[in-house]
Amino acid sequence: MPLWVFFFVILTLSSSSHCSPPPPLTLRMRRYADAIFTNSYRKVLGQLSARKLLQDIMSRQQGERNQERGARARLGRQVDSVWAEQKQMELESILVALLQKHSRNSQG
């Protein structure tokens, strides 16, 4: 047998093994339904992931806003405290001056 006939037979046998008859209609319908389900499921998972990412971003921003508000409130309380201490010191110095003036007037 010539060599080319041998290769022809081998190629024919190997190519026919890859070409199988089409699957029955019920199997194709099942695969089609599975593909539809898989695509829909992936879309839902993608939407859930996007929603979770958006919620994480929103909660981080809200947390940052709350921190800023808390910092402003603390700063405001500190400023109020410093202002109150200054006013108290001013009142005390006025009171001391009045007491000294009154004690001098009562002595003299």
TrEMBL record:
The keyword Secreted applies. One of its GO terms (molecular function) is growth hormone-releasing hormone activity. It comes from the Eukaryota. One of its GO terms (biological process) is positive regulation of multicellular organism growth. Residues 32-54 form the Glucagon / GIP / secretin / VIP family domain. Pfam families: Hormone_2. It is found in: Secreted. GO terms for cellular component: extracellular space; perikaryon; terminal bouton. Keywords: Secreted. Belongs to the glucagon family. GRF is released by the hypothalamus and acts on the adenohypophyse to stimulate the secretion of growth hormone. This is Somatoliberin. The lineage of its organism: Eukaryota, Metazoa, Chordata, Craniata, Vertebrata.
